[in-house]
Write a structure and sequence with these properties.
Elements (H helix, E strand, L loop, with lengths): L11 H22 L7 H9 L7 H8 L3 H13 L3 E5 L7 E5 L1 H20 L2 H11 L11 H4 L3
Antiparallel strand pairs: 1-2
Helix pairs in contact: 1-5, 3-4
């Protein structure tokens, strides 16, 4: 557990992380209730970092902040469920891309709707949170925007 500050509050970073994980867990539970395979939190992150036309495995690992082996394990599990596939990269001779299958695209569309419902449940607080959080400065270790990576 994170230590509270001098006023008995948890650090903001801890609160944000916990809130993000809670929203993700609620979304994964709703998706499972709709008949989708149960995904781990780590597996759900793969969907957040895949480009529409596919992402090289090494780039996916970098975006996830994990090793190539760990990313490969996540992709392998998702491939066994039929949600992603690994295909040849037409732009690189020996390259590969991780991309969504038709089923993975359907799950993603359903997830967008689930997250919209969760956000709607927050009412005006959602707009306030979005306004406050989009103004945060990007740190050196922050995830680069897709246009900066040349992959999106």
């Amino acid at each position: 557990m994170q230590r509270a500050d001098g006023r008995g509050r948890l650090p903001l970073a801890h609160v944000l992380l916990t809130a993000g994980r809670s929203l993700d867990a609620l979304a994964r539970e709703e998706l499972a209730a709709r008949g989708w395979p149960r995904l781990s939190g780590a597996q759900s992150l793969v969907f957040a970092y895949l480009d529409a036309d596919g992402t090289p495995p090494a780039e996916l690992a970098r975006r996830l902040g994990t090793t190539r082996q760990a990313a490969q394990d996540l992709v392998g599990g998702l491939a066994r469920t039929g949600l992603v596939e690994v295909v040849a990269d037409p732009a690189r001779r020996a390259g590969r891309l991780v991309r969504l299958t038709a089923s993975g695209r359907d799950l993603t569309a359903d997830a967008v709707a689930v997250f919209a419902d969760l956000e709607a449940g927050l009412g005006d607080r959602a707009a306030d949170l979005r306004r406050l959080l989009t103004g945060l400065p990007e740190g050196a270790a922050a995830e680069p925007r897709r246009e900066e990576t040349g992959t999106g």
